Amino acid sequence: MWQQNIFSRTDSTPMVLINRSTRHIKPRIMAKVEFLNPSGTHYCRVANSIVDHAEKEGLVKPGMTLVDWTYGCSGIALAMAAVTRGYKILLVVPDKISREKQQVLKALGAEIVITPSDALPGEPRSCVNVAENLVRNIPHAFFANMYEHERNRNVHIEETGPEIWEQTEGGVSHLFVPVISGAMIAGLGRFLKAKRPDIKIIGVEPEGSIYRELLHSSRAGKAAAYELEEIGGLWESKYWDASVIDDIVQVNDRDALNCGRELLRTDALFAGGASGAVLFAAMRAGALLDESAQIVVILSDYGGYYLSKMYNDEWMKQKGFYRKASSLKDEITAEGIVGLKTRKELICAHPEHTLSEVFEMMRQHDVSQVPVVSYGTAIGSISENKILSILIENDEAMNSKVVGYMEQSFPVCSSDATISELSEKLQESTSGVLITLSDGSFQLLTRSDLIEALTHK
Q: What positions does the domain CBS occupy (predicted)?
C-alpha cells in the first residue's frame, strides 16, 4: 500500500541478532537498527515529531525557515522533514563533521553555516550560540532545538521503547544507548524501567564527554576533544535523568571506530562510530555476563556518512586509529574466553600456604596446577608433578611453605589479548596463561580453554 510520504511508514526498525561479532561471549546481543530509518539515524522519529508538533501549535507556517545546530544526523532528519512540507532549512554545524554529511545536507537544499569544533558552549562561535543568534535575526525563523526538545525524549517513550519491549518479548536485560543529550536515554529508561525495574540502562559516551562523571558525582566532567560524531556531550542536558540510568561507560575513539568497521565485515551491518562505541561497550560487559542476559544495543548512525573518515584507511592511519583487519580467530580475546569458562573463581595459593594445604586445595577443586599470588601479584606457580617430586626426595616437606618450592610464574596477559597472542604465550608455558581482569583479579587460561573458545557455537 502506498504512503503519504517517507515519514508515514508505520513499521518498526529491525531488531537483529548479532551473530559473528559476538560469538565468543555467552549472552545474546541484539541490535535495534535505528540507522535504517529513512534519514539513516534515529533522529528521523524526532524530526518528524517536532515538526508535526510545531505545526499543530501554530509555531511554523508556510514560508518559514527551520533553524538548528547539529552534528549532522539530526540535521539531515530535520532537513528531510522540512522539504516534505516546503520549509526552508538553515543548519549550523561544527567543522569536524564528515564531508558526506555536509554533502547530503546540501543535496537536500539545506543552507549550512560551519563553526569551529573547538568552540565550547557559551562562546560566541559555538554552534549553539550561532544558531540562537540566527533565529533572533532572521525573520520568520523557528528554532527546532532537536537535541533539547521534549519530543526528543517522548518519541522514545512512545515509540522506540515499546518497540524494544515487544521485539524482545520483554526479555531485554541490558540496554546500551549512545548519549549525546539526555533525551533518548531518559525516554528509553523511563519506559523500560516502568515495565521492568531491574533492566539495566547503560549510556555510552566517548572519552572526553561529561556524563560519566555527572552520573557518579553529580558534577559534569571536564569536556575534552574526541573524534567520534553523534555521541557524547559537552554540557548537561535539561532532560538528563539519573534516576533511570544505571551506568555510563566510556569508549575511546580507536576502539569505537574499529568495532564499527569489524561489525560491517562480520555481520554486514553498515553502522557508524557511535554504533561502534555502543557495541564495543556491550561486548566488553557481555564477556562478564552469562547466557541468561539478553543485551540490546542501539545502532543509531549509518556508516555511509563516514566513508571519508572511519571507512577510509588513510584517515584512520593519519589519526593513529588504524587496526589491521583481524582474522576470525583474533576477534576472540582473553576476556571473551574467560566469559566462556564455567569456573569463574581462580584457585590460587599464597606464600604462607604449606604444600599440604596446596595439595588439598588442588584435590578439592580437581586442578593439577595453581599460581602463587601475593598482594595481587603473581610470583610463581606449583603443580602436582612438582609436589610429587618434592615428596619423593623429602616426605617431611608437606608442612613446608610453598614459597620455598615454587616453579616459574605463568605468563601474564591483559584481558584484550587475542587468542593468537595467548597461543604464543602457551608455547612458553606448558601449563597456562594468567589473565589480568579489569577489577585487578586473575584468571587462568589453558590450552583446553582456547580450544573450547575456538569450537564454541
A: 341-398
Element of type H or E holding 162: helix 161-167
Is 107 strand, coil or helix? helix
Are 261 and 176 contained in the same domain? Answer: yes
Look at residues 148, 172, 195 and tell me which one is the last residue of a structural domain: 148
Structural domain including 69 reads 43-148
Instruction: Find, among 254, 276, 274, the residue nearest to 265 by Cα.
Output: 276
Q: Select from 185, 174, 126 the least CA-distant residue to 152.
A: 185
User: How distant is the alpha carbon of residue 442 from its chain centre?
Assistant: 24
Residue 337 is predicted with a pLDDT of 86
Q: CB under 8 Å to 100, separation ≥6 — which residues?
A: 304, 305, 306, 307, 308
Q: What does the alpha-carbon distance between residue 310 and residue 272 come to, in Å, rounded to a whole number?
A: 8
Q: Name the phi and psi angles at 153, rounded to 5.
A: -80, -45
Answer with the one of 124, 148, 172 that is the final residue of a domain: 148
Looking at residue 330, what is its pLDDT?
A: 60
Those residues with Cβ within 8 angstroms of residue 409's Cβ, 6 or more apart along the chain or in another chain = 371, 372, 378, 379, 380, 381, 434
pLDDT at 348: 87
Q: Mean pLDDT for each 10-residue chunk of the chain (457 residues)? A: 66 92 89 94 93 94 94 96 94 94 96 88 86 92 94 95 97 96 95 97 95 89 88 90 96 95 94 97 92 96 97 95 68 81 78 89 86 85 86 82 86 84 78 81 85 73
Torsion-angle region of 271 (φ positive above 0: left; ψ -120 to 50: alpha; else: beta): beta
Q: Please list, in sequence order, all residues whose beta carbon lies within 8 angstroms of the beta carbon of residue 400, skipping any fewer than 6 positions away.
A: 354, 355
Asked whether 187 and 180 are in contact (CB, 8 A), the reply is no
Tally the C-alpha atoms within 13 A of residue 141's C-alpha that lie toward its C-beta: 16
* Residue 178 sits in the same domain as residue 143: no
In this prediction, residue 338 carries a pLDDT of 85
**Confidence at residue 251, expressed as pLDDT on a 0 to 100 scale:** 96
Same domain? 319 vs 176: yes
Tell me if 354 is assigned to some domain: yes
Asked if 229 and 272 count as a contact pair (C-beta separation under 8 A), the reply is yes
**CATH at residue 106:** 3.40.50.1100
Per-residue model confidence (pLDDT) at position 2: 64
Report how far Cα 346 is from the mean position of its chain's Cα atoms.
Answer: 28
- The residue behind cell 526479555 is 171
Please tell me the total count of domains within the chain: 3
Concatenate the DSSP letters of all residues of 258-274 into one string. Answer: HHHHHHHHHH---B-HH
